[in-house]
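This week, study the protein below.
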Amino acid sequence: MVVTKVLRQRGKAPRYSIFLDGKHAFDVSDMTLMKFGLTTGKTLQEEMVDKIKDADLFYRGQKVALNYISYRPRSSREVMVRLNEKGFPLGIAQRVVQHFQSVSLINDVEFAGMFVRDKLRAKLLGRALLRQQLSAKGMSRQIIDDVLEEYISDEDQQKAAVALANKRLNTARRSYFKLEPLKRKKRLMDFLLRRGFSTDVASKTVRKVLD
């Protein structure tokens, strides 16, 4: 097959239509065009055409991923999902993520640490809820365990639970103190459990702030 025409497309991003033996065959970016030296008269075997298409797809996947992580750090899973939403095959998405990991553009350990720090600055949360949220971001169990151990001590959890319980009582004091003592304790206990605190931390907190 012979390249018979190279036609630049309209648009901001340089894209070129490649014609083989007089017929439109595929489109490529300017980077792919230069990388493979696609000029009129160049002869291409079918295997080379497949290689060019694959390389261009990989390049476009990198552009989409780079734009996606430019707004804020993302986890590997988030980038994979984004590429899937944009129609990239699983194999391309995996290669893009692996490449970005190799050049430190994606780092799940750093992402998990940043995620926990930001969450703790914004809200008083328990380990269980943070674990659930990190898992939803695609973090491995080992990364989650390591990050939570590094950033949250048992003492931190107890202090956070007490602060949250007091805040809850201050904002909903009337409704809480209309309840019988046992129901009041149960309601506060349930609230702390929903915010991710362990049963032990929650029960100690309830005793501390209500007894």
The chain is about 65% helix and 10% strand.
